[in-house]
Amino acid sequence: MAALSFKGSFVDRILDGTKTQTIRNYRKYPLRVGETLYLYYGLRTKNSKKLKDATCKAIYHIIIDKDSVLIFYRGAELTQPSEGGGTKAQLAGERVAKVIKTQKELDEFAYADGFENWATMKRWWSLTHGDDCFPFTGQLIMW
């Protein structure tokens, strides 16, 4: 069972179909394309509510920085250098699937993730995960 929990601010966008992806840390038991995703509000709370079922269409490695998003083909091994400032992703035999850098592309990406635009998404990430949350390395899960 692949259950994903969401905050209340995303409920309407999940139900109306405008939120079609989520960004998460890597899971102990990885999701698979084709698997049913059970989308919940407040999972593991007394107010838990099942929102909908969805089929996982794609899973990508992702790096989100303040001014760009890098999406890698699934199966890529991401490594980060142990020394030096900043984070660079290096791939073991894999390619970057997409580099999102223009304001229009960043806004479209943020909208698919349930935000009005890129600025709103960055602000939410900083408030939720702290000012030092970038760069973030994890998974992009699409349904």
Topology at a glance:
Elements: E1 2-6, H1 11-15, E2 21-24, E3 36-41, E4 49-55, E5 58-64, E6 69-72, E7 78-79, E8 90-91, E9 96-100, H2 103-112, H3 118-129, E10 136-142
Parallel strand pairs: 1-3
Antiparallel strand pairs: 2-10, 3-4, 5-6, 5-10, 6-9, 7-8
Structure characterization notes:
By secondary structure, the chain is an alpha+beta fold. It has one domain. It has helices spanning 11-15, 103-112, 118-129, and strands spanning 2-6, 21-24, 36-41, 49-55, 58-64, 69-72, 78-79, 90-91, 96-100, 136-142. The protein has a 5-stranded antiparallel beta sheet, covered by helices on one side. A 3-stranded mixed beta sheet has the order 1-3-4. A hairpin with a 7-residue loop joins strand 3 (36-41) and strand 4. Helix 2 (103-112) packs across helix 3 (118-129). The chain is globular and about 40 Å long. 16% of the residues are buried. Residues 76-92 have low confidence and may be disordered.
Name a few traits of the molecule.
three-stranded mixed sheet, 143 residues, alpha+beta, five-stranded antiparallel sheet
Brief sketch in words of this structure:
This protein has 143 residues and is of the alpha+beta class. The protein has three helices and ten strands; from the N terminus they run βαββββββββααβ.
The profile of the biggest β sheet is:
5 strands, antiparallel
SSE run: EHEEEEEEEEHHE
What's the quaternary structure here?
A: single chain
Number of strands: 10
> How many discrete domains?
1
Radius of gyration: 15 Å
Low-pLDDT residue spans:
76-92
Q: Which range does the strand content fall in?
A: 25-35%
**How many DSSP helices?**
3
Mean pLDDT: 87
User: Helix/strand/pairing class, anyone?
Assistant: alpha+beta
End-to-end C-alpha gap:
15 Å
Global outline = globular
Widest sheet, order of strands: 2-10-5-6-9
Helix content bin: 10-25%
